[in-house]
Write a structure and sequence with these properties.
Elements (H helix, E strand, L loop, with lengths): L4 E6 L4 E6 L5 E9 L5 H6 L7 E4 L3 E2 L14 E3 L2 E2 L12 H7 L3 E4 L3 H10 L4 E6 L5 H4 L9 H16 L1
Parallel strand pairs: 3-4, 4-6, 5-7, 6-8
Antiparallel strand pairs: 1-2, 1-9, 2-8, 3-9
Length: 166
């Protein structure tokens, strides 16, 4: 797992820092909260979640691994703590390579409880995940404890809001 900086940006201006996980790039859209303890692949493959960002509320994701070759339909995946080791006998591989193969842009290291509270207070709010070359160079070069410049914050929020209107 070679994580780099990633940002989770909401249309209300909230920005959370995390690490990239899965495909790198940008995805924007509605956030769907998955409350299941297992079955993250079902949520990623669910037709109802096509082109949406799935938020896993279970804190530890990926220890069951990945199974089957059915495509993932979700566009993004938000998790708190991805598993370092696959520990299920039914696993056919690790989850992160499958996310990459299906171009699911992911972010980890996020306080998913805080995100659920934010979404409950702002129903229907859109979000975006930015990582890799989709993350502005200014942010990629910042120390993780340095505040993101306001101009970059505004640019990222505007990209999420614009996607809302399309």
């Amino acid at each position: 797992m070679t994580n780099t900086d990633a940002l989770l940006v909401f249309s209300n201006g909230t920005i959370l820092r995390g690490l990239s996980w899965g495909a790198r790039g940008v995805t924007t859209g509605s956030v769907v909260v998955d409350h299941s303890i297992s079955g993250y692949e079902d949520a990623l493959r669910d037709n109802a979640n096509t082109s949406k960002i799935v938020l896993a509320t279970s804190p530890h994701i990926g220890n069951v691994g990945a199974r089957g070759d059915k495509p993932y339909l979700a566009a993004g995946f938000i998790v708190r703590d991805p598993a370092q080791i696959v520990s299920n006998w039914t696993a056919e591989g690790a989850l992160e390579p499958q996310l990459e193969a299906h171009k699911v842009v992911g972010i980890c290291g996020i306080d998913t409880r805080a995100v659920v509270r934010l979404l409950n207070a702002n129903p229907g709010m859109k979000a975006g995940i930015f990582s890799g070359i989709a993350l502005p160079e200014t942010v990629r070069n910042l120390d993780r404890n340095t505040e993101i410049p306001q101009s970059i914050q505004t640019e990222l929020v505007n990209r999420v809001v614009e996607s809302e209107q399309n």
